[in-house]
Automatic annotation (TrEMBL):
<dbReference type="Pfam" id="PF01073">
    <property type="entry name" value="3Beta_HSD"/>
</dbReference>
<dbReference type="InterPro" id="IPR051783">
    <property type="entry name" value="NAD(P)-dependent_oxidoreduct"/>
</dbReference>
<dbReference type="InterPro" id="IPR036291">
    <property type="entry name" value="NAD(P)-bd_dom_sf"/>
</dbReference>
<dbReference type="GO" id="GO:0016616">
    <property type="term" value="F:oxidoreductase activity, acting on the CH-OH group of donors, NAD or NADP as acceptor"/>
</dbReference>
<dbReference type="InterPro" id="IPR002225">
    <property type="entry name" value="3Beta_OHSteriod_DH/Estase"/>
</dbReference>
<dbReference type="GO" id="GO:0005737">
    <property type="term" value="C:cytoplasm"/>
</dbReference>
<dbReference type="GO" id="GO:0004029">
    <property type="term" value="F:aldehyde dehydrogenase (NAD+) activity"/>
</dbReference>
<feature type="domain" description="3-beta hydroxysteroid dehydrogenase/isomerase">
    <location>
        <begin position="4"/>
        <end position="240"/>
    </location>
</feature>
<protein>
    <submittedName>
        <fullName>Nucleoside-diphosphate-sugar epimerase</fullName>
    </submittedName>
</protein>
<dbReference type="GO" id="GO:0006694">
    <property type="term" value="P:steroid biosynthetic process"/>
</dbReference>
Length: 339
């Protein structure tokens, strides 16, 4: 069985490629830039916006892992819909036409985040999508997931995996790296408000294992699965521990809620200016704030029951592995040059 992996130059897609190859699976890595393609595997140069290139990439493929997506806290809604929704729909249609038998979508719990939402503790997959979404990324991941699951048939099995805050060795741009960058620059205040904010994270090896299982598991058609580490973490104490591991100071300055709301409103207004939005990443967003101020923990019993998913790497071990990898690539300063 040949598996096409989209987004193969990214952190998640690249790890999936390596993980499947290590398991003896024939992989075709889909990339837009051949110069950045992984080595040792079949490579297809294609774009989600080009049906013809997708059709060629899917020739002889029996399964797809769709990890490519437009990420971001800000951006034009049309761009998010073009990539995350229209691009996913185009890939699904071409996969059906090519006779693909299974389609595994890398979704996100962000698809359940509303602008005025609060904590989501121990939730399972029965929780509905919100009526309104926190940002365009959240909305388009929800819409794309729904179209993937709706495409399920006896001949074309589809499912969605929902990892949150994927982290671990190889991560150069994800949430942990972004938080490290803010800690190093002294730009991460304590926003906890004195609350114990809890969060489910997903170590990269756990997601790769879930993908491999989803490619062969029975009775997964049309279903979504939360994929997370075995235990949630306390966000702000974990940030202190991560900071200490990299010889950084943890968050200390507190920001009152009214000041934070005013700052976010100002930033949102300024970043509606296209010239500014194209040149610079906003220092803060409601999405980023929500990730560290709302508890978000997930019941993974469906994944355990139906995929045989059992996360085995404790957070402390994963952090050791990540720290060792950062040393291997030249240290934190070198890593954050590209963050």
């Amino acid at each position: 069985m040949t598996v096409l992996v989209t987004g193969a130059t990214g952190f998640v897609g690249g790890a999936v490629v390596r993980g499947l190859v290590a398991r003896g699976v024939a992989v075709r890595a889909m990339v837009r830039d051949p110069a950045a393609a992984p080595t040792g595997v079949d490579v297809a140069v294609a774009d989600l916006g080009d049906a013809g290139s997708l059709a060629r990439a899917l020739t002889g493929v029996r399964a797809v892992v769709h990890a490519a997506a437009l990420l971001g806290e800000f951006g034009r809604p049309a761009e998010f819909f073009a990539v995350n929704v229209a691009g996913t729909d185009r890939l699904v249609q071409e996969a059906i036409a090519a006779g693909v038998a299974r389609f595994v979508f890398i979704g996100s719990p962000s698809a359940l985040m509303a602008p005025d939402g609060g904590d989501q503790v121990g939730i399972d997959e029965t929780v509905p999508y919100p009526a309104r979404f926190l940002n365009s990324y959240c909305e388009t991941k929800a819409v794309a997931e729904q179209l993937v699951l709706a495409a399920d048939t006896p001949e074309f099995t589809t499912c969605s995996l929902r990892p949150r805050a994927v982290w671990g060795p190889g991560d150069r741009h994800g949430p942990i790296v972004q938080l490290l960058a803010k800690l190093r620059a002294g730009r991460l205040p304590d926003l906890s408000g004195g609350r114990d904010v809890r969060a489910s994270l997903c170590y990269i090896d756990h997601l790769v294992d879930a993908v491999a299982r989803a490619l062969t598991a029975e009775k997964v058609g049309g279903r979504a699965y939360f994929i997370a580490d075995a235990e949630p973490v306390s966000v702000w104490s974990t940030l202190d521990a991560v900071a200490a591991r990299f010889s950084l100071s943890g968050p200390s300055v507190t920001v009152p809620a009214p000041v934070l709301d005013a700052a976010l409103a100002t930033i949102e207004t300024l970043w509606r200016i296209p010239a500014l939005a194209r040149r610079r990443t906003p220092p803060l967003s409601r999405y980023a704030v929500a990730l560290v101020t709302r508890s978000a923990t997930y019941d993974i019993s469906r994944a355990s029951r139906e995929l045989g998913y059992q996360p085995a790497v404790p957070f402390a071990t994963g952090l050791d592995n990540f720290h060792h990898w950062v040393d291997q690539v030249g240290g934190l300063d070198r890593l954050l040059e590209d963050a």
